[in-house]
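Case study 2.
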Amino acid sequence: MRLMSSLLRVGDISISVDEVRRVATKMSDVVPELSQLRDFSVADQPDLSLAVAEFVMEGGFDVMHNDLADAGASNFARDLRSLEYVNSGAHVSVVAHSYGTTTASLALAEDDVHVDAFVTLGSAGLPANLDSASDLHADAVFSGQAQDVWAIDQARGDQWAWTGRLSPEHPINPIDPEFGSHSFSVAGDGTLRAVTDHGAVTSDEGGYLDKQTESLRNVALATTGHGNLVSPYMPPAPTPLQKALIEGMTNGVAD
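Prediction:
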């Protein structure tokens, strides 16, 4: 993450953590999802002084292990400490997606690291030793998760996050009630669209940070001090394919 000059003076800072290799050099070049988060937030709060930044890292099949996350977490924790030093009065939020949630959670468990809000989206799983929101140095933790689906399922949803959580190294699902996060809906509300893909931004505008999604609205609320207004998460019913598989394995006696 670059400590851009804009981060030194603004009151609200949102930082994206993802495994996609992309680099922002200035505000106008920031990745699309962060631009959309900023635009959505400022539209509702015109007096908001908000900057966005990103922390990027490598992805690939290595994300089934914690090695990359451990290395990225050390660097990210260093950057957060530096940000605290140069702008200690800022309201800092971290928005993490996929394996970025693994990395960010490790950073937020380190000593002398603190943020005001931490948001997980489509989590590939948090490390096994971080099984409670209280393990993270964040005043508030929020989580959004689209319905887990198989890639072959005709129903739309998040087809990849659940595969990451199969790893014994990072199996914790922050959307689970026992984790203690403030879980919010990404299923759409009739006006705002549902998340229908694992991606943050997608070609059909069904990603976690795509424009006009319920997810983006809730992230904007969570990262600007209005987390009490996020729409609540409701566990989804099984898709037709999932229901058929469950019934097949239970000889048709599933509810």
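Residues 5-249 form a domain with the Rossmann fold fold (CATH 3.40.50.1820).
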